[in-house]
Amino acid sequence: MSGPSTYTPKSGIEKWIDQRLPLPRLMHDTMQTFPTPRNLNIWYTFGGILTFCLAIQIVTGVVLAMHYVANAGLAFDSVESIMRDVNYGWLIRYMHANGASMFFLAVYIHMFRGLYYGSYKAPRELIWIIGVLIYLLMMATAFFGYVLPWGQMSFWGATVITNLFSAIPVIGTHIATWLWGDFAVGDATLNRFFSLHYLLPFIIAAVVGLHIWALHVPGNNNPLGIDVKTPQDTVPFHPYYTVKDAFYLVLFVILFAVFVFYAPNFFGNPDNYQPANPLVTPPDIVPEWYLLPFYAMLRSIPNKLMGVIVMGGAIVTLVFIPWLDTSRVRSCSFRPMMKQFFWAFAVVCVLLGYCGSQPVDAAIAGVPLVWVARLATLYYFGFFWLIMPIIGLIETPKKLPASIAQSVLGASAAPAE
Amino acid sequence: MYLKTLSLGLVVGLLASTSAMALDTKRLEPKDEKFSFEGPFGTYDRGSLQRGYQVYKEVCAACHSANHLAFHDLAEAGGPEFTEAQARALATAGKLPADPNDKGETTDDKGAPLMRSATLADHFPSPFPNEQAARANNGGALPPDLSMVVKAREGGPQYVYSILTGFGGTPPHGFKVTDGKYYNPYFEGWNISMPPPLKANTVSYSDGTKATVEQEAHDVVTFLTWASEPKMEERKRFGFGVLAFLVLLAGVLFAAYRKVWKDAH
Amino acid sequence: MAATTSDAGTRRDFLYVASGAIGAVGVAGIAWPFIDQMNPSSAALAAGTTEIDISAIQPGQQIVYKFRGHPLFVRRRTPAEIAESKAVPVASLPDPLARNANLPDSAPADDASRATKPEWLILIGVCTHLGCTPTVSTPAIPEGDYGGWLCHCHGSQYDVAGRIRKGPAPQNLAVPVYSFLSDTRIKVG
Questions:
Q1: Cross-chain CB nearest to A92 (options C33, C39, C43)
Q2: Inter-chain contact C49–B120, Cβ cutoff 8 Å?
Q3: pLDDT (tens digit, 9 = 90+) per residue, A378-387?
């Protein structure tokens, strides 16, 4: 995709296909010879891991849909029959449920990596923005999926999230009713959520295609954040990164397997093993862990509309990062001040997640958590809208290495052989 | 046991120091009961499962349904592993509402509903025909379905065990037990609608095990944990194979990774 | 130099092949649960037994029940029908095997092997050609030339023991596993 193709068909058949549909050429240029910076570290393997996660979710999801019944009276029982009666149904459902958590774990690492190494900066702004779109679609898909087992958390989660829309002045309640298809979350809601839950992953797959396409125009960023200058700076994608990605993918799958087989309900909530009951709300409504930071922001704002705006703004903000960062240097490795604010930001996100997981009236050391969440929310927005633009202007970055090859191979970068 | 005493002591201490304030009726930490199915290699104790089924059937099933359990489950690997003949006999003893007869009737001459014996394919019969009947017979409270009670409660097996063995204490000074309810500090709010279900020798075990309250509770919790997670043994076995395989694959890939990259530096 | 490169290359190739082979084994292994999930579930298998009260069936009458999603023919044969069926030489039949799940596979298709109690013929009502349900023949409305069943999809004709006599069907109608719990109650499956 970038630069002239180096593909030469090896056989008559390959040539014949290449002239009609250059798919072998595309595979060859993007996955085999693609020049990739030689200094990508472990954090750059998460792109491949995420592709794997999406594939696992689609395959297990299609299979689950063969047994699942999207009906408010039958959904809960059908999930239990998958767990008990369907051959290996327990395995497939636990893979799907834990797969969602692993997917988000990987996507957060991927996003923080991009943030640290400045992968959103020119010329990669669109890769980042498409990534934010994927993240949004993932959250929507995960939310729809969480509703499907029709347990207590499914039902009340759906109720709370759809009620967010009722915060919109004038038309809000109409939007909520429109989403429900009834006067409350019910059978109609479950059916449409199932339909959307099945649809969205394929849209995600298409947008991931755009994400990777956009990546292959400028090529990968790298931990040094400097451009590729000479062929010595890169290695071909295969075998160097195929084997590296494969190795770290297997490590990731080991972690995944530990959850699936030995702690399958670790990320789940016991309340979701009780059938949905529209008359009784569980005492503590908690979203899945990956949404907790946003949930904490929502709860920390005492005004309904403002809470929703702040929560939505936290995600919309991500779109503007390429222009909020004024630094000429990409990688935080060479930005002593920004590095500290970055790590503070990471801690703040975890802290927000913790606040979201606790009961509304909780406190640590006498400080009500709602105030902790407020300060953390302030830092979240301050980090992007104030710190990022200002630090970029006042910070003196460290000296950048002359080239990737020189940095990796050291002073003796002269060809040894 | 030690933990239990400790937490009780803590609560008593707390109560003493805050006697002027309203009682905090948050549920106590569950007892630290040990079960055979814990840990990555834990399996269900078959004897305990079969005894637990007996306790469930003779005690719990009088009020609680277990809708997700079928009689054929009782004979399947990883469960109580009754023989198929035993499971069939247990099923035949269960009665379910029959289909309409050839005349289209669903009740007999006296108005009693027509019943039929359950088969291996049938799920466990419910003690009450509907929620209203269940509430009417239990002072307005609905006995929860037990098929997934262990998975559906924070604290799991230990929590259910603590509830079953948590009756009989003297309520602390200042705590009033609501009429028609029972004092159980392991239950949120300390007032529970369920009367103490287990006494010594409530059931008589055919294998000679002494039927203390603790033993009965331990057995029925084992049974209910299996009811929640009937594929646990298969899951752990499968998982061991998968992890062994993945570690091998990771090893080979690591060697390949090192080899490939050695040439690059 | 060249030798080293080739040695390293060999070792590298070996590791590629080993990784690929182990990976392929893993993919094949994890594929099985995804295939097996489409097989009948344990609930479906447990539901494969049906008990039927046959006391209301009159001589010459057939009643159709549902068994594992298929029609189950229970026909109470008249003495004349039994005699007619017994008179057919097994060697003249297109399918000389009993196709009775209660008997060995090699049992011949004589009448006694088709119906253990001659009065009661119990069959899976699925034409062995392409799975349609054959229509029963009665004196009032005869179906086919053999007094048994006619499959209207492609014209297979069965006799009063459910044996194929004419048409494209390759086999006699199957006899399922069944047993008499009493004179009036059978258990199928």
A1: C33
A2: yes
A3: 999 999 999 9
